[in-house]
Amino acid sequence: MSRELMARDGETTPVDEADMARLLVHALANPVLVLALDGAIIHANQAAEQFFSMSRALLARQTISGLIPYDSPLKALIDDVITRDAPIQEYRVDLGTPRIGIERIVDIQVMPLRNAARQIAIVMQERTIADKIDRQLTHRGAARSVSAMAAMLAHEIKNPLAGIRGAAQLLEGGLGEDDRLLTRLICAETDRIVKLVDRMEVFSDARPVARSEVNIHEVLDRVRSSATAGFARHIRLLEHYDPSLPAVAGDFDQLVQVFLNLVKNAAEAIGEDAIDGTIELSTAFRPGVRIRSPGSTAPTSLPLEIIIKDNGPGVPPEIATTLFDPFVTSKPSGTGLGLALVAKLIGDHGGIVECESQPRQTLFRVLLPVASAPLRPAFAGGGPHER
What we know:
By secondary structure, the protein is an alpha+beta fold. It folds into 3 domains: about 1-130, PAS domain (Beta-Lactamase, 2-Layer Sandwich); about 130-205; about 210-370, Histidine kinase-like ATPase, C-terminal domain (Heat Shock Protein 90, 2-Layer Sandwich). It contains 10 helices and 16 strands. The strands form 5 sheets. Strands 4-3-7-6-5 form a 5-stranded antiparallel β-sheet. A 5-stranded mixed β-sheet has the order 9-11-14-16-15. A hairpin with a 5-residue loop joins strand 3 and strand 4 (about 40-45). Helix 5 (about 125-155) crosses helix 7.
């Protein structure tokens, strides 16, 4: 039996049921695998290729045991489905491996296919992305709390500090050298606190982002130039850009600040003594990711993906889930405001930022919306490129 699909130009194209099934499976955003009874992979859709970081041809040479952790409950699920000849679902199964990421939490449905070969289908819904988006909304709430605290600090602390510093300077004139050391210490410490409050004041800026069409590759080029001329001159920077990426609606300077913070964070993680330090900057178009923010009437599509990846030692596990919260840092001299500021600015642009980390591979992924309507051009001239 055959069916007909309506083509875009109004013509019809005959498609049989087997082809229709393959088209539907490939159109799914969820990873799908079809297995033989011995665990050999018969078929994989495009989402499965992305999930396992393998082409279909390479997946077809694998067994399911070679793709998942040796102690994965998925093996027992497959055995139960074969025995019972009935579908089974299980939630929050970790399929993480060093190849695809240490933490890949998925909801799994395993079902028998009613065909002569008695094949098995596996459908996966990745929970990691949903959980990270939930954490993004928490980070935004934390940033709003810091905004209120920053406004309060600026008013309630900076004025008294100015008085303390002035009094110390007045006392200094009538004191001996030993006592002058104490007044200078008072001045130095008040100056340090004022600088910290100044850094926090950026969180209290609640003005809407002045948006224009921004070429994200021009932003990254500016970041790369600054990094290679300064803090990352001892590190190899690689670029993998999608030259067809559309513009983002945003503020050029704020986006430069975001990605400069992320690249600087990567360079500091690698360290000045590293001889093989590498930071990769990549862009891609990833349709299908949408987020609904509190108070919004419709979800926002976030197809622009920008990744900053380094081969440093990784994020300490004890701070991994709170990395974007204010005052969270693993650096002895850090304030813990850099990544909190990144989360705030990306949130102001309607996007999200997330982190995946393991030893020798830390990845910061930024997802942003495209410019949905013609805006004032931010820059003219050269377009994106690939190196």
